[in-house]
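[Automated response] Your request has been received and processed.

Submitted sequence:
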Amino acid sequence: MARHDEVLIALRQIIRATDLYSRKLSKVAGLTAPQLLILQAIASQGEMTMGDIATEVSVSQATVTTILDRLEKRGLIERKRGERDKRRVYAYLTDAGRDIMERAPTPLQDEFMSRFSRLEDWEQSLILSSLQRVAAMMNAGTSTPRRCWILAPLTASSPPRAAGAPTLPSKPTRSDIMLADDKKADSSSADDKDDIILRKPESQDGARVHKLIAECKPLDENSVYCNLLQCTHFADTSVAAEMDGDLVGFISGYIPPKQQNTLFVWQVAVHEKARGKGLAKRMLDNLIHRDETDNVQFIETTITPDNEASWGMFRSFAYERRMPTEEFILFDSRIHFAGEHNDEHLLRIGPFNRDDA
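Generated structure:
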């Protein structure tokens, strides 16, 4: 069976589950699913305007008005003008409306959300990104999707970006990567050719790391205290690069408590005088070959869609070592950044055997 046929079968199964629930809801409570959603929304707020309801349940105000007309005829809701602003009309539940909600079966989405909430964050993001991508491919909705997320092995082409999807103005990114140097050089450069020394950071490096990051715009600057912690508590999973006595490169990383086989790369900084030497990839290679990372099989980092230098470096690192990659949304622009920052894509490299890397 072709893969697209399997996708269509899964979609039909979802549609059938929704249809069966709608029939049960109609039989038990005499309601449609949209009617129940609107009643639930009103019940949760006590009173709501047409616009608020439309936003809450993601339907047009015209549809909300039509549904409210039917609910009002059945005596389940009533509409009143606001006491302070007579131009605003609010919908309220009646006693009959509250009674019918008690008799209605548990909404289908409640059962789904209960199961969904028990999934790991990456699994939730995976499902969400895949479904939104499917919706976009089927031209669902009346407007261009705010975002289209791609879940597929990455190639050495341009970074993932949905066609027509808006991007925010360029700002300092929390991806915390500045790696233009690795577009220019191969990772095979030997340390003894340029006198670059790679080592674990020490407490005395905290202030030096802070200064380095400040000179590597647009990296986000943390407090010196944070950099001190990176150089001490996380020294085993971080690397400092020195050239002629100067700190010219730094990677901070850590092993997440619940993912002992994963190295998460937080920041990568390379000073301009050390660029063109493939230093970022050399530091990353140094990290995965330490005794402390013996159990690491995956590398993870977050990158914004417009950070082409970072995509290029990490993809190149994975490609040269024949490591598989996948990518999905970890932090959403609207949900996690209040629209002030681009989506952060989680790039996952692996699994890999470091002896082969």
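Summary generated for your ticket: The two ends are 36 Å apart (CA to CA). Residues 19 and 357 are 51 Å apart (CA to CA).
If you did not submit this request, please reply to this message.
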